[in-house]
Fold:
Amino acid sequence: MSHDGEAADIGRVVVIGVGNPFRGDDGAGIEAARLLRGRLPNGVEVMEQDGEPAGLLDAWHDVRIAYVIDAVRADGLVGEIYRVQIDRTAGTTLPASPRRDSSHALGLGDAVELARILDRLPGRLVLLGIAGAHFEAGDALSTRVHAAVEQLVETLVEEVSAACA
Structure:
């Protein structure tokens, strides 16, 4: 049941690309969303978001599975893909991050915790982060991040198709 007493749409699946395509590697999620359009099963919604928590909460509310793709700043290799899965009933928490240098006013972790408090998490939330290096205005996606986006798109086409079968 949703927070307002209505039954959740248990079959809905969404893919949300987060970021800013005019800030280099920050556009990785948006690029992934654009490459996924037309390649996923009928009924799967593909969205682009700027990462603001209110928009994310609305996008993933009352869905069975939400995949969120965003660029991240990480100590690993540029283009490395990180995955965190949060199941609504399992109480999974995000790893703590000592840095809060997101290009968004509030980060994705803030949106997840706000959704948890407001009982607006999807049934399963899959967070996919691509480690970026260049986030300056006017930068293009770096070669390694673009390759990671293409790899992630192929993986998601298979995974989302299997989840909808």
Q: What stands out?
A: Residues 53 and 111 are 4 Å apart (CA to CA).
